[in-house]
Fold this sequence. Notes:
299 residues, alpha/beta, Arc Repressor Mutant, subunit A, D-Maltodextrin-Binding Protein, domain 2, 3 domains, five-stranded mixed sheet, two-stranded antiparallel sheet, 43% helix, 16% strand
Amino acid sequence: MSALPPLTAVRAFEAVARHLSFTRAAAELGMTQAAVSYQIRILEERVGTPLFLRRPRQIALSEVGARLAPEVSRAFDLLRASFAETGERAEGMLSLTVTNTFATGWLASQIGQFQLGHPDIAVKIDTSNVLVDFTQEEFDAGIRATGHIPPGLIGHPLAKVEFAPMLKPSLIERYDIREPADLLRVPQISPEDPWLPAWLEMAGVPAAAAVQKPFIGLGSQYLESRATIAGSGVAMLTPLFYAEEVAAGLLARPFDLVGWVGHHYYFVYPESRRNWTRIKAFRDWIIDATAPLRALEQS
């Protein structure tokens, strides 16, 4: 297979053949006129014949150049169309990595509103608590629960990561829950959750007071909430995500005290992507859509 000429030289030829001007071609390509002329000489040496006839104050395609120009022009048109189509497809797909709790607690029920307002953008969501390196994984942006935004990323706070003990209302009477220490008599769902000792300490209950006993470990706040609604015990949940269940009498918060260790849910993306159309569209939507969550937060 014969080696292709340098792409820079072919690109220069296409522009000069279209404009019939080294000056205008140079301006379009962001090159000097001398650089364009040099690239044309390289190409003419490769094909072994002149491609342009240099005349005073004007140039014209040679016979060989005239035969070659339409084919080169069609090839570049195909390349432009292919890259344009690829860009349109990429611009129409937003790939997000989202922490499990936020995805199940809020985003899954709200994402349809974004797509109603942006029918040209499809959203692909991967739920995971694993921190993603955006330079290594094919995700555009993400939603993470953290207290620190790493260098190179932009983070927009969406809501505080608050927590409180919640349980089925009937268990409050069954276990005679009157003060925070009474919760220790209730079967604990995922007691290895670090939120439990943090909340107990805030409530003035020594963490050491918790007695080790058989427990249910589910590892997901969504699963923990389902087990709690079923009456399996008490779990540390994020109140913002369960207002409807509380209003419906499926869950109850026996105490008003809400824990917070400085973390927020953030919409995050690399600084280099700040002007991507699909990211800007989702950023503007989610900041506005989560405003009611921030209004409900306890200071």
